From TrEMBL:
SUPFAM superfamilies: P-loop containing nucleoside triphosphate hydrolases (SSF52540). This is Ferrous iron transport protein B. The chain crosses the membrane at residues 215-234, 275-300, 320-342, 354-380, 392-415, 454-475, 556-576, 588-610. The keyword Ribosomal protein does not apply. Residues 1-170 form the FeoB-type G domain.
Length: 612
């Protein structure tokens, strides 16, 4: 099978082109460091041909961990006999930045006898602003074919596919640009000369970007805009997803009313009602929030604002030993800690990368979202303002998210000040990508895929746990008395551990099972309350918590505990792999667990002190 490799600098539109050619849904965003691993997929229009997408890099002299991945795999691919061609994507609106890397790629391909096709992306932007570029002259100068395309609009893709089909059927030798022995210093000078001679004329694009930056990067207005955008991000999680959540809850309740009475076997009927609808169903209610969260973060990334937010955050993050580049992995951690840990590869400073690893597990990830939503809905009233756009529950969600972020900064600040400085830090350098209108279709598709992945990944664990919980809670008395079941016996053993938080054995069992994955907490409670409720409809889990006698202080203690404790086995595994230290992952698990318990006990006792 033939293989074609796709390389390019960050923000050149590489992942968008990859998705268009393969039909896959690789994450697309307008920020350096989004694509953090090698992806591959079969070309839809050319059978038996695989396209391999490498992480974006500015040169073949890697600095960050992400660039090391790209360069290592690129050099290895050039020795692969199945690799027939190399596609090098350049941003036609930023010619000089792209050409230096392109010349390096041409030089390496010349040494290995590989073909290179240069793809000039963003041609739609130049056409819209009536800016001309001499691609024919550039192609002659670098001795490589250049195909103008627009990955966003799809223009030029047919010409690219036609070229690939012809060259796959009629293989040729590598290029001969006379660069095989040219050092990087000369290539950089050549890139500048080529960009000046053949690149786009005019500064319309720069002026347009500068006008927006004058607002978003303003010393005062930019800060207000940043906090406003972040607040809307967290407000949207509750307020904007509420109709979809209500629809899911109503649909599950209606489905339960139809299916459960139709099952004649009592044990099977109880299992369907308690484990499936009360356990897994209670978890599914919160999936719309995952969709909304992913969509809003995607909007910020794809528009180019994320890089501005990173720049705004650099100075305050520096106080806590971090860098502006830490902002993106940390915010990505709001969706999931695993891709956030991978995204930390883009941080070139080893020390700041390590500190970012320590901060990411404290970010309020989407696995915590069902737990937060459940507890906030149980104890915070649904007071709204501005026609329902702003709500008290959304404010509570913002505060608990802010608490997690504050704890992350506190940890990194303490560690950075009390650990030996064994690394030579590099200066903070960040590219400001152009502002672009986000593509709605890719964002919706990515949000859907993220929600589906969350359900399938967490659903397997939740299903397994809920089955075990149901069996232990249902037998030996067939659900007549949950406290006298096998589960009750286990729960009473661990109850003293959670008694200082004002929690009974049911919540203790739910917390313990959540160490497999945080979201299991919701399914476990749903299953146990389903068994207790017998024939009642158990989908609205909020009402069951309110009726269970759980105090506000205990609810706050649970929020604090889940905000700090490292309770995800997958995150620990990836953390150990990326940091190359399983000891670090185990130490963080123990330290965050102990700190979470102590703070949760403190919050509960403060609540008692103030009569809450």
């Amino acid at each position: 099978m033939s293989r074609i490799i796709l390389v390019g600098s960050p923000n050149s539109g590489k992942s968008l082109l990859f998705n268009r050619l393969t039909g896959l849904s690789q994450k697309v965003a307008n920020f350096p460091g989004i694509t953090v691993d090698v992806g591959s997929g079969k070309l839809q229009e050319i059978p038996d041909t695989t396209l391999v997408d490498f992480p974006g890099t500015y040169s073949l002299q890697p600095i960050s961990g992400e660039e090391e991945v790209a360069v290592e795999h690129f050099r290895r691919a050039l020795d692969d006999a199945d690799v027939t061609q190399v596609l090098c994507l350049i941003d036609a609106t930023r010619m000089e930045k792209s050409l230096y890397f392109t010349l390096q790629v041409i030089r390496e391909c010349e040494r290995h006898g590989k073909q290179v096709v240069v793809l000039a992306n963003m041609m739609d932007v130049l056409t819209r602003h009536k800016i001309e570029v001499d691609l024919a002259g550039l192609s002659h100068a670098i001795h490589a074919p250049i195909i103008p395309i627009s990955a966003r609009k799809g223009t030029g893709i047919d010409n690219l596919l036609k070229h690939l089909r012809h060259n796959i059927d009629n293989p040729k030798g590598g290029i001969d640009a006379g660069l095989a022995e040219t050092p990087d210093e000369l290539l950089r000078g050549n890139a500048h000369q080529l960009a000046t001679r053949f690149g786009p004329r005019g500064d319309i694009l720069i002026k347009s970007q500068a006008r927006l930056d004058s607002f978003f990067l303003h010393s005062t207005l930019g800060g207000f805009a940043f906090f406003g955008i972040m607040y809307l991000l967290f407000q949207s999680i509750f307020t904007w997803s509420a109709p979809a959540m209500d629809a899911v809850e109503t649909g599950l309740a209606a489905l339960s009313d139809v299916i459960v009475p139709a099952i004649s076997n009592q044990t099977a009927s109880d299992f369907t009602a308690d484990a499936l609808f009360s356990g897994i169903g209670a978890f599914l209610v919160f999936v719309p929030q995952i969709f909304v969260l992913t969509f809003i973060i995607g909007l910020l990334e794809d528009s180019g604002y994320m890089a501005r937010a990173a720049l705004i955050c650099h100075r305050p993050l520096k106080v806590f030993g971090l860098t502006g580049k830490s902002f993106i992995p940390m915010l990505s951690g709001v969706a999931c800690a695993i891709p956030a840990i991978y995204a930390a590869r883009s941080i070139d400073s080893p020390k700041k990368r390590l500190l970012t690893y320590m901060a990411i597990p404290l970010m309020p990830c989407s696995a915590r979202l069902p737990v937060y939503t459940l507890l906030i809905a149980a104890f915070i009233p649904q007071t709204t303002a501005l026609g329902g756009l702003v709500g008290l529950q959304g404010l509570a969600m913002f505060l608990i998210y802010f608490f997690g972020m504050a704890c992350a900064l506190l940890v990194t600040g303490l560690v950075s000040r009390n650990s030996p400085d064994q690394y030579n830090d590099l200066p903070f350098v960040l590219e400001m990508p152009p502002y672009r209108v986000p593509g709605l279709k890719p964002l919706l598709r990515n949000s859907w895929n993220r929600s589906k992945h969350f359900v399938t990944k967490a659903g397997k664990i939740i299903f397994a746990v809920t089955v075990v919980i149901w069996v232990l809670g249902y037998f030996p008395n067939h659900g007549a008395d949950l406290s006298a079941s096998w589960l009750g016996s286990i729960g009473h053993v661990v109850e003293p551990i959670f008694a200082p938080l004002g929690l009974d054995w049911r919540y203790g069992v739910a917390v313990l099972t959540s160490f497999l994955a945080r979201e299991v907490f919701v399914g476990t409670l749903g299953t146990m309350f389903g068994i207790e409720g017998a024939d009642e409809n158990m989908v609205p889990l909020v009402e069951q918590i309110q009726a269970s006698g759980l105090s506000v202080g205990s609810g706050l203690a649970l929020l604090v505990f889940f905000a700090i404790a490292l309770m995800c086995v997958s995150t620990m595994a990836i953390l150990g792999k990326e940091s190359r230290s399983n000891t670090l992952a185990l130490k963080m698990f123990a330290a965050y667990g102990i700190a979470a318990y102590i703070l949760a006990v403190g919050v509960y006792n403060l609540a008692l002190l103030f009569g809450i």
